[in-house]
Structure to design on (307 residues):
Protein backbone atom coordinates (compact mmCIF):
# COMPACT_ATOMS: atom_id res chain seq x y z
CA UNK A 1 0.00 0.00 0.00
CA UNK A 2 1.13 3.54 -0.76
CA UNK A 3 -0.17 6.66 1.01
CA UNK A 4 0.72 10.29 0.35
CA UNK A 5 0.64 13.06 2.94
CA UNK A 6 0.39 16.66 1.71
CA UNK A 7 0.71 19.77 3.85
CA UNK A 8 3.29 21.74 5.83
CA UNK A 9 6.01 20.79 8.30
CA UNK A 10 5.97 23.52 10.96
CA UNK A 11 8.61 24.53 13.45
CA UNK A 12 6.42 24.40 16.58
CA UNK A 13 6.87 26.25 19.85
CA UNK A 14 4.50 24.55 22.31
CA UNK A 15 3.35 26.04 25.60
CA UNK A 16 1.25 23.13 26.93
CA UNK A 17 -1.60 23.18 29.43
CA UNK A 18 0.59 21.06 31.70
CA UNK A 19 4.36 20.65 31.56
CA UNK A 20 7.21 22.73 30.24
CA UNK A 21 7.69 24.69 27.03
CA UNK A 22 8.92 22.57 24.13
CA UNK A 23 10.11 23.00 20.55
CA UNK A 24 9.41 20.30 18.00
CA UNK A 25 8.72 19.49 14.38
CA UNK A 26 4.99 19.86 13.85
CA UNK A 27 2.40 19.96 11.11
CA UNK A 28 2.28 16.86 8.91
CA UNK A 29 5.22 15.39 10.84
CA UNK A 30 2.61 13.77 13.10
CA UNK A 31 0.61 12.36 10.17
CA UNK A 32 3.73 10.91 8.57
CA UNK A 33 5.07 9.36 11.77
CA UNK A 34 1.74 7.77 12.64
CA UNK A 35 1.49 6.18 9.21
CA UNK A 36 5.11 5.01 9.37
CA UNK A 37 4.46 3.30 12.70
CA UNK A 38 0.97 1.93 12.05
CA UNK A 39 1.45 0.56 8.53
CA UNK A 40 3.49 -2.48 7.58
CA UNK A 41 7.22 -2.05 6.89
CA UNK A 42 6.59 -2.94 3.24
CA UNK A 43 4.04 -0.14 2.80
CA UNK A 44 5.25 3.23 1.52
CA UNK A 45 4.49 6.77 2.72
CA UNK A 46 5.14 9.77 0.49
CA UNK A 47 5.19 13.17 2.26
CA UNK A 48 4.89 16.15 -0.10
CA UNK A 49 5.73 19.62 1.22
CA UNK A 50 7.74 22.78 0.72
CA UNK A 51 10.44 23.24 3.38
CA UNK A 52 12.49 26.29 4.32
CA UNK A 53 16.24 26.04 3.98
CA UNK A 54 16.56 26.58 7.76
CA UNK A 55 14.40 23.53 8.51
CA UNK A 56 14.92 21.04 5.67
CA UNK A 57 17.81 19.11 7.24
CA UNK A 58 16.08 18.89 10.62
CA UNK A 59 12.94 17.40 9.08
CA UNK A 60 14.82 14.94 6.88
CA UNK A 61 16.95 13.83 9.84
CA UNK A 62 13.79 13.39 11.93
CA UNK A 63 12.35 11.07 9.28
CA UNK A 64 15.54 9.20 8.43
CA UNK A 65 14.98 6.23 10.77
CA UNK A 66 11.90 5.10 8.85
CA UNK A 67 12.68 2.93 5.84
CA UNK A 68 9.08 3.01 4.59
CA UNK A 69 9.22 6.75 3.84
CA UNK A 70 9.89 8.10 0.36
CA UNK A 71 11.14 11.68 0.57
CA UNK A 72 11.19 12.62 -3.13
CA UNK A 73 8.28 15.01 -2.59
CA UNK A 74 10.10 17.26 -0.10
CA UNK A 75 11.24 20.49 -1.78
CA UNK A 76 13.87 22.77 -0.25
CA UNK A 77 13.16 26.49 -0.74
CA UNK A 78 15.47 29.44 -0.17
CA UNK A 79 13.36 31.04 2.57
CA UNK A 80 12.57 30.55 6.24
CA UNK A 81 10.17 27.80 7.24
CA UNK A 82 6.76 28.48 8.76
CA UNK A 83 6.86 28.70 12.56
CA UNK A 84 3.84 28.24 14.82
CA UNK A 85 3.49 29.15 18.51
CA UNK A 86 0.81 27.14 20.32
CA UNK A 87 -0.27 28.40 23.75
CA UNK A 88 -2.79 26.15 25.49
CA UNK A 89 -5.41 27.96 27.57
CA UNK A 90 -7.06 24.67 28.65
CA UNK A 91 -6.56 20.98 27.91
CA UNK A 92 -8.24 21.25 24.49
CA UNK A 93 -8.19 24.98 23.67
CA UNK A 94 -5.22 27.02 22.48
CA UNK A 95 -4.12 30.30 20.98
CA UNK A 96 -2.17 29.90 17.76
CA UNK A 97 0.22 32.35 16.12
CA UNK A 98 1.81 31.68 12.74
CA UNK A 99 4.63 33.24 10.75
CA UNK A 100 4.60 33.48 6.94
CA UNK A 101 3.18 30.35 5.30
CA UNK A 102 5.19 28.31 2.82
CA UNK A 103 4.19 28.78 -0.85
CA UNK A 104 1.21 26.57 -1.77
CA UNK A 105 1.77 23.27 -3.54
CA UNK A 106 0.41 22.99 -7.06
CA UNK A 107 -0.36 20.15 -9.42
CA UNK A 108 3.28 19.80 -10.49
CA UNK A 109 4.21 18.90 -6.90
CA UNK A 110 1.14 16.68 -6.38
CA UNK A 111 1.62 14.68 -9.58
CA UNK A 112 4.12 12.38 -7.83
CA UNK A 113 1.12 10.93 -5.94
CA UNK A 114 -1.04 9.93 -8.91
CA UNK A 115 -0.33 6.21 -8.47
CA UNK A 116 -0.66 5.85 -4.69
CA UNK A 117 -3.70 4.32 -2.96
CA UNK A 118 -4.71 7.33 -0.87
CA UNK A 119 -3.58 10.86 -0.06
CA UNK A 120 -4.14 12.77 3.18
CA UNK A 121 -4.39 16.50 2.49
CA UNK A 122 -3.79 18.02 5.92
CA UNK A 123 -4.32 21.79 5.68
CA UNK A 124 -1.88 22.77 8.43
CA UNK A 125 -1.66 26.46 7.51
CA UNK A 126 -4.78 26.56 5.35
CA UNK A 127 -2.65 27.75 2.45
CA UNK A 128 -0.66 24.54 1.95
CA UNK A 129 -2.24 23.60 -1.38
CA UNK A 130 -3.55 25.57 -4.33
CA UNK A 131 -7.24 24.77 -4.89
CA UNK A 132 -6.82 24.61 -8.66
CA UNK A 133 -3.87 22.26 -8.17
CA UNK A 134 -6.04 19.98 -6.03
CA UNK A 135 -8.82 20.14 -8.61
CA UNK A 136 -6.45 19.16 -11.42
CA UNK A 137 -5.05 16.35 -9.24
CA UNK A 138 -8.59 15.07 -8.58
CA UNK A 139 -9.26 15.02 -12.32
CA UNK A 140 -6.03 13.15 -13.04
CA UNK A 141 -6.40 10.19 -10.67
CA UNK A 142 -8.83 7.90 -8.85
CA UNK A 143 -6.85 7.73 -5.60
CA UNK A 144 -8.80 8.11 -2.36
CA UNK A 145 -8.51 11.71 -1.17
CA UNK A 146 -8.79 12.33 2.58
CA UNK A 147 -9.11 16.00 3.55
CA UNK A 148 -8.45 17.25 7.07
CA UNK A 149 -9.95 20.73 6.65
CA UNK A 150 -8.08 21.98 9.72
CA UNK A 151 -6.66 25.49 9.33
CA UNK A 152 -8.61 26.25 6.16
CA UNK A 153 -11.29 27.25 8.69
CA UNK A 154 -8.93 29.79 10.29
CA UNK A 155 -8.18 33.39 9.39
CA UNK A 156 -5.04 35.33 10.38
CA UNK A 157 -4.90 38.80 11.88
CA UNK A 158 -2.05 41.31 11.51
CA UNK A 159 -0.13 39.77 14.43
CA UNK A 160 -0.26 36.24 13.01
CA UNK A 161 -2.96 35.12 15.44
CA UNK A 162 -5.36 32.52 14.05
CA UNK A 163 -9.11 32.79 14.52
CA UNK A 164 -12.06 30.76 13.25
CA UNK A 165 -13.43 32.05 9.95
CA UNK A 166 -15.50 30.40 7.22
CA UNK A 167 -13.70 30.70 3.87
CA UNK A 168 -15.82 31.59 0.87
CA UNK A 169 -14.58 28.58 -1.12
CA UNK A 170 -15.13 25.92 1.53
CA UNK A 171 -17.63 23.90 -0.49
CA UNK A 172 -15.24 23.77 -3.47
CA UNK A 173 -12.64 21.97 -1.35
CA UNK A 174 -15.11 19.46 0.03
CA UNK A 175 -16.54 18.67 -3.42
CA UNK A 176 -13.13 17.28 -4.45
CA UNK A 177 -12.63 14.71 -1.69
CA UNK A 178 -13.73 11.22 -0.66
CA UNK A 179 -13.28 11.47 3.11
CA UNK A 180 -13.72 14.71 5.06
CA UNK A 181 -12.46 15.36 8.59
CA UNK A 182 -13.52 18.37 10.67
CA UNK A 183 -13.14 19.03 14.36
CA UNK A 184 -16.11 20.41 16.26
CA UNK A 185 -15.20 24.10 15.96
CA UNK A 186 -14.32 23.75 12.27
CA UNK A 187 -17.72 22.17 11.64
CA UNK A 188 -19.49 24.86 13.66
CA UNK A 189 -17.60 27.55 11.74
CA UNK A 190 -18.55 26.15 8.32
CA UNK A 191 -22.15 25.54 9.39
CA UNK A 192 -22.57 28.93 11.08
CA UNK A 193 -23.37 27.34 14.46
CA UNK A 194 -22.39 29.01 17.74
CA UNK A 195 -20.37 27.20 20.45
CA UNK A 196 -23.42 27.37 22.71
CA UNK A 197 -25.61 25.24 20.47
CA UNK A 198 -25.73 21.54 21.45
CA UNK A 199 -23.40 19.02 19.77
CA UNK A 200 -26.40 17.17 18.37
CA UNK A 201 -26.98 20.01 15.90
CA UNK A 202 -23.82 18.84 14.09
CA UNK A 203 -25.61 15.69 12.91
CA UNK A 204 -27.62 17.51 10.24
CA UNK A 205 -24.50 19.34 9.04
CA UNK A 206 -22.53 16.10 8.82
CA UNK A 207 -25.25 14.52 6.71
CA UNK A 208 -25.23 17.53 4.38
CA UNK A 209 -21.48 17.07 3.81
CA UNK A 210 -22.17 13.74 2.11
CA UNK A 211 -24.40 15.56 -0.39
CA UNK A 212 -21.37 17.57 -1.57
CA UNK A 213 -19.37 14.48 -2.66
CA UNK A 214 -17.57 12.73 0.25
CA UNK A 215 -18.67 9.19 1.05
CA UNK A 216 -17.37 9.56 4.62
CA UNK A 217 -17.39 12.52 7.01
CA UNK A 218 -15.80 12.61 10.46
CA UNK A 219 -16.57 15.33 12.99
CA UNK A 220 -14.21 14.91 15.93
CA UNK A 221 -15.31 16.05 19.39
CA UNK A 222 -12.05 16.03 21.40
CA UNK A 223 -12.60 14.10 24.66
CA UNK A 224 -16.23 13.43 23.67
CA UNK A 225 -15.33 11.12 20.78
CA UNK A 226 -16.54 11.68 17.23
CA UNK A 227 -19.40 11.45 14.76
CA UNK A 228 -19.11 9.26 11.68
CA UNK A 229 -21.35 9.90 8.66
CA UNK A 230 -21.45 7.24 5.95
CA UNK A 231 -23.64 5.52 3.36
CA UNK A 232 -25.29 2.16 3.95
CA UNK A 233 -27.68 0.66 1.42
CA UNK A 234 -27.90 3.99 -0.37
CA UNK A 235 -28.95 5.82 2.80
CA UNK A 236 -26.94 8.29 4.91
CA UNK A 237 -26.21 6.89 8.36
CA UNK A 238 -24.40 8.31 11.35
CA UNK A 239 -22.82 6.85 14.46
CA UNK A 240 -21.51 8.49 17.63
CA UNK A 241 -18.25 7.11 19.05
CA UNK A 242 -17.13 7.61 22.62
CA UNK A 243 -13.56 8.65 23.35
CA UNK A 244 -11.20 6.37 25.25
CA UNK A 245 -11.36 7.32 28.93
CA UNK A 246 -8.01 8.67 30.14
CA UNK A 247 -6.71 10.04 33.41
CA UNK A 248 -3.25 11.03 32.17
CA UNK A 249 -3.92 13.42 29.27
CA UNK A 250 -1.12 16.00 28.94
CA UNK A 251 -1.07 17.31 25.33
CA UNK A 252 -3.71 17.40 22.59
CA UNK A 253 -1.36 18.41 19.75
CA UNK A 254 -1.48 15.86 16.92
CA UNK A 255 -4.76 14.19 17.90
CA UNK A 256 -6.46 14.98 14.60
CA UNK A 257 -3.37 13.89 12.67
CA UNK A 258 -3.29 10.59 14.54
CA UNK A 259 -7.02 10.14 13.93
CA UNK A 260 -6.69 10.48 10.14
CA UNK A 261 -3.63 8.25 9.85
CA UNK A 262 -5.14 5.58 12.09
CA UNK A 263 -8.43 5.65 10.18
CA UNK A 264 -6.73 5.02 6.84
CA UNK A 265 -4.39 2.38 8.25
CA UNK A 266 -7.30 0.39 9.68
CA UNK A 267 -9.68 1.06 6.79
CA UNK A 268 -7.30 -0.34 4.19
CA UNK A 269 -6.79 -3.51 6.27
CA UNK A 270 -10.51 -4.05 7.01
CA UNK A 271 -12.55 -1.99 4.48
CA UNK A 272 -14.83 -1.28 7.46
CA UNK A 273 -15.43 2.41 8.23
CA UNK A 274 -16.92 1.67 11.66
CA UNK A 275 -13.98 -0.42 12.87
CA UNK A 276 -11.59 2.13 11.34
CA UNK A 277 -13.29 5.02 13.16
CA UNK A 278 -13.23 3.19 16.50
CA UNK A 279 -9.50 2.58 16.00
CA UNK A 280 -8.94 6.23 15.03
CA UNK A 281 -10.61 7.40 18.25
CA UNK A 282 -8.36 5.12 20.29
CA UNK A 283 -5.16 6.39 18.65
CA UNK A 284 -6.28 10.03 18.96
CA UNK A 285 -6.90 9.54 22.68
CA UNK A 286 -3.55 7.84 23.24
CA UNK A 287 -1.87 10.76 21.48
CA UNK A 288 -2.94 12.92 24.45
CA UNK A 289 -0.86 10.86 26.89
CA UNK A 290 2.54 12.21 25.76
CA UNK A 291 4.01 15.57 24.75
CA UNK A 292 4.40 16.35 21.06
CA UNK A 293 5.54 13.43 18.90
CA UNK A 294 7.76 11.92 21.61
CA UNK A 295 6.10 8.50 21.79
CA UNK A 296 4.52 8.02 18.36
CA UNK A 297 7.16 5.36 17.72
CA UNK A 298 5.62 3.41 20.64
CA UNK A 299 2.02 3.69 19.44
CA UNK A 300 1.55 -0.04 18.80
CA UNK A 301 2.70 -0.81 22.34
CA UNK A 302 0.39 1.85 23.76
CA UNK A 303 -2.52 0.38 21.80
CA UNK A 304 -1.83 -3.12 23.17
CA UNK A 305 -1.62 -1.79 26.72
CA UNK A 306 -4.95 0.05 26.29
CA UNK A 307 -6.83 -3.04 25.06
Amino acid sequence: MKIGVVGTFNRDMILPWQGEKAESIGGIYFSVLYLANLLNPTDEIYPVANLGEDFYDEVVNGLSDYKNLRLDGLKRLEEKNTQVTLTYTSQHERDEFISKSMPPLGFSELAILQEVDAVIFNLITGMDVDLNGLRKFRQSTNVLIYLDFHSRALGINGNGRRFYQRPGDWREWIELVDVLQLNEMEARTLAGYTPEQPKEILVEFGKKMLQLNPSICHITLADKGSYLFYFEGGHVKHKRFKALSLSNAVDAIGCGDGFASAYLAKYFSTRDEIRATAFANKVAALNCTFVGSSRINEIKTLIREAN
Remarks:
- The mean pLDDT is 95.
- The domain at 2-306 is CATH 3.40.1190.20 (UDP-N-acetylmuramoyl-L-alanine:D-glutamate ligase).
